[in-house]
Specification:
43% of the residues lie in helices and 16% in strands. A six-stranded mixed sheet has the order 1-2-3-4-5-6, with helices on both faces.
C-alpha cells in the first residue's frame, strides 16, 4: 500500500484535560507537566481522553512493577521526565516502558534499565533469559517523524530503520562490552499508525532480510536479534542462530 502524503490536522489545537488523580494517579504524576505545556493531539487526541489515560496507566504501572522502581525514581531519570513538553522524548520514554512490559510477557527475567556513564552513550535495557544476559537498544519511530512521500508503507519503514540501526548498533556494542552481555538485540517501537495496521509478519521478515544483506552483509554483524513492537500490539522477533536459545 502506498502512503498518502496528505495529512488532515485541525488548525487550532486544544489542550487536553488533565487526568483524574483518583482514576489515573500515575498519569497525573508522569504526564501533567507535559499536558500543561503542549497540545499534542497525536499522542493525546481530544476525543477518547479517559481511554488514553487508562492505557498509559497500565504501561506505567506494569513497568514500575517489572523494574521494581518507585515512580519517583523512574521520573528522576531524564528520559522519563516529560515536563519539557517534547513529544519525541515522551514517545521514546513510553516506548522503552512498553518494551519492558513486552519482555516480561516473553519470559525475560531481571529486566533493568541500563545506566551508561555520563556522556558515554549505551543501550537502554538488560535482561536474562535461558541463561543468557541480553542487552537491548530501543528506537522509537515517533508520530512526529514521517516516511518518504509516495512510498509503500514497508519501504517507508525500511528507510527509517536503516537510518537508525547504525547508531543503535554502536550503543549496543558499548553496553555489551561494559556489562558482558551474551546477546544484543535492537528493538524498534513502531508508532506509525499505517505500518502498525497494514504490515504483517512477512513484511517485517523481508525487512530484516534486506537489512542483513546491506553493506556486504555486515550491517547486522554483532546484532543477534531485531524486535518490532507496533502501536497495534504486534510483536515480531527475528533472531540469529546464537540467540535461538531464548526463542521460547
Amino acid at each position: 500500500m502506498v502512503a498518502d502524503a496528505s495529512h488532515s490536522h485541525s488548525a487550532l489545537r486544544s489542550f487536553m484535560p488533565l487526568p483524574d488523580p483518583q482514576k489515573h494517579p500515575l498519569s497525573v504524576f508522569f504526564l501533567s507537566g507535559f499536558l500543561q505545556k503542549v497540545a499534542d493531539e497525536d499522542n493525546f487526541p481530544s476525543g477518547p481522553g479517559e481511554a488514553v489515560f487508562e492505557r498509559y496507566e497500565v504501561v506505567f504501572g506494569k513497568a514500575l512493577e517489572v523494574l521494581q522502581l518507585t515512580k519517583e525514581s523512574l521520573r528522576a531519570k531524564p528520559e522519563f521526565n516529560f515536563d519539557s513538553g517534547d513529544s519525541s522524548t515522551l514517545e521514546a520514554g513510553i516506548a522503552t516502558l512498553r518494551v519492558v512490559n513486552a519482555l516480561q510477557l516473553m519470559g525475560h527475567k531481571q529486566i533493568s534499565l541500563i545506566n551508561p556513564p555520563k556522556n558515554a552513550g549505551g543501550a537502554d535495557l538488560a535482561s536474562e533469559k535461558a541463561g543468557k544476559k541480553i542487552c537491548f537498544e530501543v528506537k522509537a519511530l515517533t508520530k512526529q517523524s514521517t516516511g518518504g512521500s509516495g512510498k509503500f508503507f514497508d519501504q517507508q519503514l525500511y528507510d527509517k530503520v536503516f537510518d537508525l540501526i547504525g547508531k543503535a548498533k554502536k550503543q549496543l556494542m558499548l553496553s555489551a562490552a561494559a556489562l558482558k552481555c551474551d546477546l544484543q538485540i535492537v528493538v524498534f517501537v513502531v508508532n506509525w499508525f499505517s505500518q502498525s495496521i497494514y504490515l504483517v509478519g512477512s513484511d517485517y521478515f523481508d525487512l530484516v532480510k534486506r537489512l542483513a544483506a546491506e553493506q556486504d552483509h555486515s550491517l547486522l554483524s554483532g546484532i543477534n536479534g531485531v524486535l518490532f513492537v507496533t502501536s497495534a500490539g504486534g510483536q515480531f522477533l527475528f533472531l540469529d542462530e546464537a540467540a535461538k536459545a531464548i526463542d521460547s
